[in-house]
Amino acid sequence: MTEKISEDQVKHVAELAKLKINADQLPYFTTQLDQIIGLFETLSKVDTDGVEPTSSVTDQINVMREDIADNWNQRQALLDNAPDTQDGYIRVPVIIDESEDNN
Amino acid sequence: MNYFDQSLSSVHEKLASKAISATDLVKQTLDNIKNVDSKINAFITVDEDGALKKAKQIDEKGIDSNNLLSGMPIAIKDNMVTKGLKTTAASKILENFKPIYDATAVKKLNDLGSINVGKTNMDEFAMGGSTENSAFQTTHNPWDETKVPGGSSGGSAAAVAAGEVLAALGSDTGGSIRQPASFNGVVGMKPTYGRVSRWGLIAFGSSLDQIGPITRNVFDNATVLNAIAGHDDHDLTSSDKVIPDFTSTLNKGVKGLKIGIPSEFMAQGLDDDVKQVVLDTAETFKKLGATVEEVSLPHTQYGVAAYYIISSSEASSNLQRFDGIRYGYRAKDAKSLEDVYVKSRSEGFGDEVKRRIMLGTFSLSAGFYDAYFKKAAQVRTLMINDFTKIFKDFDLILAPTAPTPAYGIGEDISDPMTMYMNDVLTLPVNLAGLPGMSIPAGFSKGLPVGVQLIGRPYDELTVYQAGSAFEQDTDFNKQTPKMGGNN
User: Fold this and answer.
1) B152 is catalytic
2) 3-state DSSP call for residue B129?
3) Structural domain tally of chain B?
4) In terms of Cα–Cα distance, which of A85, A76, A22, A17 is closest to B330?
5) Do A33 and B359 lie within an 8 Å CB cutoff?
6) With B72 labelled, which of A13, A69, B233, B385 sits at a CA distance of 20 to 30 A?
7) Kind and range of the H or E element at B359?
8) Which of B194, B308, B346 sits opposite A59 (nearest CB)?
9) What does the alpha-carbon distance between residue B143 and residue B485 come to, in Å, rounded to a whole number?
């Protein structure tokens, strides 16, 4: 069977999805994804010329509503869920990695 | 209280006549859960304090004698947000998450006075068919503790089957209510897409996800759907169609109904016992006055591929929100913002979730979109057309729910392909947005086997009508597991 997805592609896809796959897990994920994508390719046998794609099966179209804030007054409950907070703000590590600014 | 010989009506009668108070009922329910769940592990969280508090309020206000759910203990799958009560979707990434609002379906049950006793185990983010993908615990099938309860709503189905509660909410993206219902010998309904609001259901595949009830019998199921159905301003895909009384057709019988059995669903790969159960069920329906004929859903063999492309693509988008910033798990040693994202997600998600995110990201990525996502969406249209054609001449479709009865814990988990193929009989209903219900219809070596009844869009009434007629003529739903084996 020809390869549907390579280890490099799996690494790339993981990067796009903000995931890191460790080197020792890469062959395992690659083999599995390769098999599944092989299954996906069976769809090429279906004649879909001129067939509209379906993205949703709702019976609703363009539902409008007033733009009114709802259930908004829960600042402390929201902050209680954050992993790190300070003075009513959510704390995160530095956004710009300054170690590369040394030139 | 053990609920094996009870129904919503029989328990309601005890509450309304004050033979038991809501508080005592909740206490007995919690005691039984403590006992039973030490073996079954259906619950991630048991909300003892919350349930007792609510019961006290109900007792002070009095039981509403016109409302079967007043004071009734129920359970909720742990992917529906519950205000102030830990909601994890069985993922490490949400292990300490406390929602600030109630999902609409949960709120509707709360408003009717039902009492949430806890949150049930599931496959992480509802991805899986055995509940083994939970980050926290393994749930055991009450009929045989060495077997899986199915999934992803395995906790809800096992809790009902083990007599821990009479009703629980599940969610179904590709079979996650119906398959565990089949494995546990209980009734599980996936309503029409849009029938129940998805607001507060932690999103997996947004064009497929639907909340529905798992119960011991059809009447109870219809009663819970009555409670949770309806348009919701918070879910713009929820339908504004009039909600009928889903219990209103339960005694109408099936005389004159036309039922089709898709030949593709009865093909190779189907367990012999399961096949026999479907054929026996067809005979029962014929005996009761329905006509049963073979029909064809010619694109069935492409369903698994189309479903896994579409659901994984939607999941990869929906799960972007888990980034370790505002809520949920954050990796301890993250040095930069990028590090927070990548490490939190890599440590917080389990392997199956990572697989789906990568499959989805791949299917949507430049150069692959047309061959995968768009193609799958086109095949979805063809599958919908297949159903539409059948429903011009037939009122219902009868089919096996799952290819096999419950399998052993640890048997399938290592091979995702086998897991995915197991969904072949349930996922067409999600792709087409139809109502589908699994009802207990037989046994195979002591394990329950369910069959699936599939209806036209928004025609849950006919599904319930036929399910009820079958239930009244048979006693499969009256069997209960002898916990500890030897069924």
Assistant:
1) yes
2) coil
3) 1
4) A85
5) yes
6) B233
7) helix B351-364
8) B194
9) 6
Range of B370's domain? Answer: 1-487
Torsion angle of C-alpha atoms A10, B308, B154, A17, degrees rounded to 10: 30
- For B66, list phi and psi in degrees, rounded to 5: -100, 10
3-state secondary structure of B437: strand
- Gap between the terminal Cα atoms of chain B: 22
Interface test with B, best of A54, A91, A98 (most B CBs within 10 A): A54
Per-residue pLDDT tens digits for B107-142: 999 999 999 999 999 999 999 999 999 999 999 999
What tens-digit pLDDT sequence spans chain A (103 residues)?
468 899 999 999 999 999 999 999 999 999 999 999 999 999 999 999 999 999 999 988 888 888 888 888 899 999 999 999 999 999 998 876 666 554 4
> Can you give the CATH number for the domain in which B8 is found?
3.90.1300.10
Task: Name residues whose C-beta falls within 8 Å of residue B419's C-beta, 6 or more positions apart in sequence.
Answer: B128, B129, B130, B412, B413
Q: Which of B170, B128, B131 is nearest to B148 (CA)?
A: B131
Cβ neighbors of B415 (< 8 A, separation 6 or more) are none
Q: Is the peptide bond between B363 and the residue preceding it cis, with omega within 30 degrees of 0?
A: no
Question: Residues for chain A: how many in total?
Answer: 103
Instruction: Provide the β-strand partners of residue B436.
Output: B190, B454
Which residue, among B54, B11, B48, has the nearest Cα to B163 in the 3D structure? B11
The verdict on B363 touching A (C-beta cutoff 8 Å) is: yes
Catalytic, B176? Answer yes
**Catalytic residue (one of B7, B54, B70, B77):** B77
* B353 inside 8 A of chain A by CB: no
B196 backbone dihedrals φ, ψ, rounded to 5°: -120, 135
Task: Tell me if B214 sits within 8 A of B167, measured CB to CB.
Answer: yes
